[in-house]
Structure prediction request, 139 residues.
Amino acid sequence: MVDYESKKLAQCFIQPFSKEIQIPSEIFDEIQPIGKNVVAVIPGESKKLTFFLTNAERILFIKLILDKTSLNEVFFTSLRETMIELNLENLFSTGVCFKEEICVWEGVFEYDKGNYDEIQEKFSKVTHVKKAKFEKLHV
Prediction:
């Protein structure tokens, strides 16, 4: 039988919501060596906030818009090949389709290395992408 107490399990805290989130020191001390910066992903109408620790100084947030009928294996193969070719470190990705025949794939990448023009060009050419949006973020 495995001793669950020896495993790293999720931690939780609650506090009043404000512009400054204070991570309890016992949690901060444990996760602090993982990265010097934090990336927050906040979905549009969701109550969920997702945080990623990284040592990167710059982040690239990419949104790919395509038709619902185009969300198939060909799109995902082309997307996967593009990500491998560009060798970007993916922190987060997700996709959603709306009632109106539109789907959006979003990805957050560490971006301390890489040619922005090449990244824009290659993601814009992913099979079935109608429109690509790029946002560069930095500390």
